Each structure stands twice: as structure tokens, then as C-alpha cells.
Amino acid sequence: MASNRAATDQKVVTRFAPSPTGFLHIGGARTALFNWLFSRHHGGKALLRIEDTDRKRSTQEAIDAILDGLDWLGLDYDEDPTFQSRQANRHAEVAQILLDNGHAYRCYATPEELEAMRAEQRANKQPMRYDGRWRDRDPSEASEGASFAVRLKTPTDGETAIEDLVQGPVTVRNEEIDDYIILRADGTPTYMLAAVVDDHDMGCTHIIRGDDHLNNAFRQLPIYRAMDAIEGGWSDPTYAHIPLIHGSDGTKLSKRHGALGVEAYRDDMGILPEALFNYLLRLGWGHGDREEITRDEAIELFSLDGVGKSPSRFDIKKLENLNGHYIREADDARLAKMVAGKLGDDADIALLEQAMPVMKTRAKNIDELVDGAGFLFAKIPLTMTDKAAKLLTDDGKALLSAISNRLKAENSWTIEALEATTKALAEELELGFGKLAQPMRAALTGTTTSPGIFDVLVLLGRDEALARIDAQAVSPSQD
């Protein structure tokens, strides 16, 4: 019997095999990441296979979204993607080899016969599985020209054991695995056959995937072992089945928890790729108390020993907090370009880059930077939020007039000089500094939240800042 291969026995080859029937789900992205890190850690190969055999549901749009999402996360592959649909002849060839060597057989059971079989099993509360009715029958018993499917002849006694690198030892009695179809009546291969043939032909040594595929391993291993007995060289892969991701409340992950495509985290939620990379890495894998881990460190540290056996919980707030960390660490020019892309053609990238050090200190996503940068490009008269408008009372406007007169006399338009001048005015008026800063912020930004008021004055520049203050300090009746 073939045995599992350890990571050190030969060059590691992993594969990520998404189905292009929708976006790159966050769970799939983590599976891709773990495969990529495992191969990179061992100096092996990371491969990508697009499992597009469902021609009705697979779309080019979904393929593009998957490739784009993987590229955005920085997951590169060592060969061009393999498309499963293009290997159908090879899959059929292996089915024929199994058939010719007695490891598979033709099943002529009609859909009506199979449904009657299942109905009887339901009535008797028996396990729902194929009863092997054509396993030992001569094909000559079938009607001439009758259609047939090809079923794998699975072991009927004993048990199959897997030493899973995440789940540990797992054993299943062979009698629990029925003779399943590997080639449909129309000649198309089933997933079970196609996945095994592709994994073998791609040289995959390690199959790292969600634990919802654990049962599939016990159905797929008989194909490896039958082909190994026929041809040799079909050694069992090493399996690692990763627990699925749950929502923060412990239930199955759904859209209400944030179960979106990777592109939604990028485009709609303003998450940086390094933040999602780090978050997915820590979602079910750990290395001590480390939270922030760079890409290079992840490659160095990653091992399947650190993957837990329990489902991990997805927490949007934790992702946003981590994203805030990476925004603060990010290059200002890069952030400015991203913000400008969302603001449109009128955005001044140079001004955004100048503003970024003070804008990014509290932002948790790119959209917050976009919102925070809006005041830089606002036109007089500014649109006021309700809270800002309430600060521009007659008393507030009077204070703005005093502020304007004092700032117009200021020769040095720097943070230090403006702060000294404004605070001196507050002392003269016997007011707390906040009493001046609040109407100033409203007049300058149209909001009650912004970077520091002196940063705002400097970023807007002398002429624009004074024009905005004067626009609120003098009412239309005073023009």
C-alpha cells in the first residue's frame, strides 16, 4: 500500500483549485494562502488549477475575478494556470485504464432504478449509497445499446487510514464508501476522478484544503492506489484539511458576517492587501502571540503544525483594526494614489501625499481616508454637516472674524506660528482653545472632525484657509 509523503522527502508541490462559479471567497483566499505559504516555506512549487468543468456555471468573469484577487494578495504561481476542462480526454483515458484492469466497471442502472433503490433505502432508514448491483454482473446482461456510467470498484472490507497533517489520524471503514461514478453516461468525468488525475499529473505532493473535503480523501485514495497497482508512481498525496471559517457568533460564515469576495474587501471596504494577507494568515494559524507578521516572516514561520483543529471566527472589527495598523505603516505616496483614484480626476495627488501623515493616523480603511480628504478639495461655499452648521452661530461667526483678522497679520504660515497666534488670541478673549477651534474647523472643513486644526490651515494654504473662514465670518447681509 502506498504511503503518505512527508514534506522533506521530495520537492513540495501544492495546488489551489477554485471553481470559477463566483468570486474568490474569503475562505478560498485563506486556503490559497496556506497552500502558497507551505510551498514557499519548503522551497517547493505553488500551482493553480481552475476547476471549470461545470460549464453552465463557470464564467470568464469569475476566472478573471479569481486571478485578480490572487494577484492582489500577492500570491504568485510557478506555472500558468491549469484548466480542468481542457484535461477531459486525459480523465477519460484514466477511467478506461481502470476499467480495462478490473478496478472499475460499467453500471447500466437506469435513473429510475437508482431512484427506486434510494427510495427503498430511505424507507428502511439505511445509508444512501449505491448497492453495487452491477459490480459483478456481466455487461452482456444489459440491453443492446444501453447507456452506462463507469463506477470505481472500491474496497469492501477493511479500513482506510489517513495521517492528516492538521486533523491527525483519521480512519474510515471501507464499507462506508460506495462504488461511485467516475465517468458519466455522456463520457464526462466526475470531480472525484478529475481532481485525482489532475493532482497526480501536476505532481502535487500535498493536498491542503477545507475540512469539508475530508470525506473526499477516502473516496479519492482508491483511485491513487488502483492506478499505482497498475502503473506505479501514483503515491498517496499527503493531506491537510483545514477547519472552515465561522462568523463571529460561531455560526456558518455568511454574507452577514462579511463572507464577501476578495474584491469587495479591496474595492468596497478599503482593505489593504497586506492587511488581508496578515489577517487570513492569523485566521486559524498562530505563532505565539504575534499579530503583525510580514510576508517574508510568514514564509519563514509557516507550518501546518500551527493550524488549529477548530473552526476560526471571522471578525470584521479585528480586520479593520489590523488594516488601520497597515495604513499607518503604508507609504504616503501609495495611499495618496489610492485615495485619488476614488476621488476622481480633480484630486491633487501631491496635496494628498502632503496631507497623508496627519490623515492616516486614525483611518481604518481607504474609504475613511477618502472621506477625510474631502475637505481639501471642497469649493466655497462649503456644504456643512448638521453638527458643523450648529457651531456657526452669531457668536461663532464673530469669533471667526476675530480669528481671520489675527491670522491675516501672521507672516509665517507654519503649524508652530499659527498655533502660537491662535492660542494667544484665545487667552486674550479668555476662552478655552476649543471655543475657537470648533467654529474654525466647521468653517474650514464643513465638518466637526478633521486632522489637527493647524494641519488643516497649512494644508489648505493661506489664501484658501482665509477665504473659507471669511465666507462664514461675514454673513450675506454684511456684504
UniProtKB/TrEMBL annotation:
It comes from Pontixanthobacter aestiaquae. Keywords: Aminoacyl-tRNA synthetase, ATP-binding, Cytoplasm, Ligase, Nucleotide-binding, Protein biosynthesis. Its EC number is 6.1.1.17. One of its GO terms (biological process) is glutamyl-tRNA aminoacylation. It is found in: Cytoplasm. Catalyzes the attachment of glutamate to tRNA(Glu) in a two-step reaction: glutamate is first activated by ATP to form Glu-AMP and then transferred to the acceptor end of tRNA(Glu). This is Glutamate--tRNA ligase. It catalyses: tRNA(Glu) + L-glutamate + ATP = L-glutamyl-tRNA(Glu) + AMP + diphosphate. One of its GO terms (cellular component) is cytosol. Belongs to the class-I aminoacyl-tRNA synthetase family. Glutamate--tRNA ligase type 1 subfamily. Monomer. PANTHER family: GLUTAMATE--TRNA LIGASE, GLUTAMATE--TRNA LIGASE, MITOCHONDRIAL-RELATED. Residues 121-140 have a biased composition (Basic and acidic residues). The lineage of its organism: Bacteria, Pseudomonadati, Pseudomonadota, Alphaproteobacteria, Sphingomonadales. HAMAP family: Glu_tRNA_synth_type1.
